[in-house]
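Ticket reopened. Same input as before:
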Amino acid sequence: MNHKQTFPEGFLWGGATAANQVEGGWNEGGKGISVSDCARAHFDTDVTNYKAHNAVTSQDIEAALATDDEVYYPKRHGSDFYHHYKEDIRLFAEMGFKVYRMSIAWSRIFPNGDDEVPNEEGLKFYDDVFDELHKYGIEPLVTMSHYEPPLNLVLNYKGWYSREVIGFFTRYVETICTRYQDKVKYWLTFNEVDSMIRHPYTTGGLIEDRFPGQNFEEVIFQAMHHQFVASAHATRICHETIPGSLVGCMLTKLTYYPYTCKPEDVLKAQQTMRGTYCYSDTQVFGEYPAYLLSRFKNNGITIRKEDGDDEIMKSYPVDFVSFSYYNSSCAAEDTSNLNVTAGNTINAIKNPYLKASDWGWQIDPTGLRISMVDLYDRYRKPLFIVENGLGAADVVNEDGTIDDQYRIDYLREHMKAILDAIEEDGVDCLGYTSWGCIDLVSESTKQMSKRYGYIYVDCDDYGKGTYNRMRKKSFYWYKKVIETNGMSLYLEEI
Ligand code: BG6
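Engineering reply: fixed in the latest deploy. New output:
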């Protein structure tokens, strides 16, 4: 490594959260119920069984609506950012954040999704949050939709499968872009837009039993088409309303290696990777890639489009490409004798060269560099790493300290890989926001004990605790990284 040891000037260091996992206050301030408020924790289910944790039926929703319980529905309490945001932002500022990625809960602004008039109390809440951020010179990076469709759109429409939802979303985007035009410059449209294929309920408000007799894969792609059109409208609205604004897509960066050099394994890895790129390909190039159209044809999938859909998608591609990256996986033609582990929203094939987190996610900093190079070569648009981090069970020592050296080790190696990609591979990267900079409720397992933060929140899996905030060892470490613009990563003693 001969390159310099600091990040580019103006590199946006920060942290990331999502309203549905951090805010709480699920029934306060005029907020409506969102899909995530009805996402149930399965305490006895193996944490690596992603599918079991995320399966949702109409019956589950009825059960959720019948109770105000927050133990089984932990996203209802989150980390109570709703009441602690001033304290939390002060801590972010203490670490030196330049940017804070957060989402606006759609159901706080339009409680039912289809309302004519927005909820002023919800709008005011985000005004206050943005003002607080700006007070410390922290730039907000706002996700418009991070697993937060209002539940009414599931119950009285068919989630994103219904064409009308594009109109409701567009109204929401017009409202927030107009209201926050002087406060928010960086926007993301849909968090992990590709995730609809893996968890259709949280991303698209789709419940399979509400589509009897229909090809559910077709339902998912139809809903996704609506999100692509809506995303293009959102980009248009942002550009028209906020001069100089930048809008990004957001994808789950799932990186697959061939398990062996057998050509069939290499082909399998390539095909799997294409399967993950098809969504960002569509948002960056403004049209469906040929290989996705082939998949539609071969699987008997017909997407209903309206006049103007192709034009709007083509006219308003995204300005930058953001992504989450946590782990890598392998791909093989024959997986029958291979070991499987968990990954972000997937079951991954174990790579014998990698260690894994306590939740089974394989730790691979080099994979982040590989991912950045792939994305930049493919799109030639600036990248933004908006999620990365280690979910771990932290222990509070008797003296109140939290020694999360394992998290520091994970982050340090990933950050070095980012600088290698920038300096050696010529990748343009706008910034880095580590996931769950303050502890929050896990998306996949709904656990509070799967912690990512620099800031500990005293709350357990059942929502019990004082919700007090405490600085972990990594808090001081990250502060130093930001202060030195990355230089401290290379100094052993720190
Ligand atoms: C990403 C999501 O996929 O992964 C986040 O955008 C999520 O919402 C994060 O929290 C980490 O996953 P988990 O399951 O550990 O919370």
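The longest helix spans residues 216-241. The radius of gyration is 21 Å. Please confirm and we'll close it.
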